[in-house]
Amino acid sequence: MKHLELYIFDLDGTLLDSGKDIALAANYAFEKLNLKTFSEEEIISKVGYGAKKLIEDLIPEYPQEIKDKALEYFKEFYYSNPVIHSRLYEGAEETLKKLKELSKKVAVVTNKYEVLSVEILKKLNVIDYIDLVVGADTTSEKKPHPLPVFYTLEKLKSDKDKSIIIGDSETDVLTGKNAGIKTALVLQGYGNKEFALSLNPDYVLDSLKFI
Known about the structure:
about 15% strand, alpha/beta, two-stranded antiparallel ribbon, six-stranded parallel beta sheet
């Protein structure tokens, strides 16, 4: 993988262990609406496609106006409390630093909102290692649509053949394949590993210590 020039990382479950904070925000929203709450495991199992989809998947039986209000409360809490329990995974900071020392291009492409993602990366003191952050609201489509990757390639003037996306879920593998770039699945985080492996990623990593 050292021959590549652009390394695109997913955020939640890949660089960032953020499950507790996402669960806190979701349950805050449900409590505000006097709805049932969920275990951290139940909430994490549905992470990967953005906050709107997370809320909709957790309370599918409720009308859209309730889901919209829950999303509003979710954002209210999470934007005010983005890093209570969230931590970088082991090896994440060292790998980002090493990639920059090797003059590689580094991007984060996530289905989390862009401003929130930048704020979290700043709080965790790794924003300086990252050339571009692309969130769910940066482009008109989000992962697994290839547009966020195409946007990244254009912005960073990178070649498809020398680029890779690294993530913990089927969303990331599908995104990479849809965009025609290399893919790496990290065996940590929150994604459905069985499904992700069935998509035949180019690389399978036990951790982020791959450089």
